[in-house]
Design goal:
elongated
Length: 118
């Protein structure tokens, strides 16, 4: 699993991923991930999830990225042409450790569902 997380497209110059990126990575709906975050907020906060505001990201060293300002968000284009979106009011971001915890929680949910079926 750690090797898969290493391949995840993280926000440039930050080593974190947005909620949508994590949902896409685990192939779940964003609402499912939002519910998971609510139910496991304490553990995920210990793992480093936080709200990243647009202005805080823009204050960072932005080498090798292009930032496109939109009315409600910014689009960050990295050197590989990948697009990342941060809303003006802030986006929940996950460091690698929290991304792994999300995977563990999703795995345990799937395991419990399969146990109930048999």
């Amino acid at each position: 699993m750690l090797e898969r997380v290493k391949g995840l497209l993280l926000l440039p110059n930050l080593e974190m991923a947005t909620t949508q990126q994590v949902a896409d990575f685990y192939e779940v709906d964003k609402k499912t991930l939002d519910t998971l975050v609510i139910r496991n907020r304490k553990e995920l906060k210990e793992d480093g999830i936080k709200i990243l505001k647009k202005k805080d990201y823009l204050l960072r060293n932005l080498h090798n990225v292009e930032v496109v300002h939109k009315r409600s968000h910014i689009e960050i284009l990295d050197k590989n042409g990948n697009k990342h979106i941060l809303t003006n009011r802030g986006s929940l971001v996950f460091p690698k450790r929290a991304i792994l915890r999300v995977g563990n929680v999703l795995y345990s949910i799937i395991f419990k569902v399969n146990l109930k079926l048999f």
